[in-house]
Structure formats: C-alpha cells, structure tokens
Amino acid sequence: MHRRSFIVMAGTALAFPGGRAHATVPTKMTVYRDPNCGCCHEWAKAMGSAGYSVDVHDTDDLAAVKARLAVPPGMEGCHTAVVEEYYLEGHVPLEAVERLLERPHIRGLAVPGMPPGSLGMGDDGKAAYDVYAIPSGAGAPYVFMEVRPRKG
Question: The domain containing residue 125 runs over which residues?
Fold first, then answer.
C-alpha cells in the first residue's frame, strides 16, 4: 500500500511540476548603453529588479548596435536592449516587455527619445507616451501600448 501511494505521488509530481524544485531560469537581457548615461543604468537596474538576468555592455557606438538591429529612424531611444529574439529601444516599460515575451510577430519595441517619467526617467506615474511595435516585415511602426498618467 505504501508503494502505491509513493508511485501515485511521484506520478502526480511529474505530471504537475511546480514549486521550488523547478525554479525558472531568469530571462537573459543584454543592454547596450552609453557609459555616461545615468537613466540607462536606472532602466537596466529596474529590469534586473524585475527578475531579468541583465548583462550591460557600455559602448561609444550605439549607432552601430541600432543599425545592426535595424531600429528605424525616428524610433531611437538612448539605449538598446536585446531579450530573446526581440530588441527594446529606449525606456520600454516592464509591462510592455512582459507582453512582448508572449511572442507577437514583431522585431521589437521602441520608446523614442527620453520621455519624462518613463522607467529610468523618474517613473513618477505622470508619464504620457507611447510604446511602438516594430513589425517583422514591411510596415510602419504602430502603437503597441499607451502609457498614461495614473488616476487617483
């Protein structure tokens, strides 16, 4: 009888894995930034605090990184990150990164410029900016997510 109970418990554990024994490996993220930019450091730090395994590469030639990834003109931010097969351009908020990892058919996300209040730029809840999706094929960037001030 004890042997049957053990077999049932072991089978259940294999069928429904969970708990601490099957901890998830953090998603790797590579961030390319200007070594003199403080907001890029804050953004990368926020991604690390959210559970991403962040590898920061300081570079004086961000233009080459953006060109290699085919970031469209007008969509550029102050740093570029790569997570799985996607790129993140600029101050992309955590919620958008999480949605991106649901695997939409796009090349990446972009927050052009340095919007005040965006993640890494104060994150004060009063920010208003758009996060753009960059299509995989032909087509113009489109609004993937709107960030608007919190009410209340």
Answer: 25-147
Based on the structure, what is the number of domains in the chain?
1
How many alpha carbons fall within 13 Å on the CB side of residue 92? 30
Tokens of 119: 């993640």
pLDDT digits (tens, 9 = 90+) for 5-30: 333 333 433 333 333 333 467 899 99
User: pTM of the full predicted structure?
Assistant: 0.81
Of the candidates 104, 108, 98, 99, which has an alpha carbon nearest to the alpha carbon of residue 72? 108
Question: How many Cβ atoms sit within 10 Å of the Cβ of residue 133?
Answer: 22
In a domain, 131, yes or no: yes
The predicted-structure confidence for 33-77, as pLDDT tens digits, reads as follows 998 888 889 999 999 999 999 999 999 999 999 999 999 999 999
User: CATH number, domain at 71?
Assistant: 3.40.30.10
**Structural contact between residues 91 and 43, judged by C-beta atoms closer than 8 angstroms:** yes
Distances (CA, A) of 128 to 18, 26, 147: 39, 30, 5
* Tokens 């790797």 found at: 28
User: Does residue 114 sit within a domain?
Assistant: yes
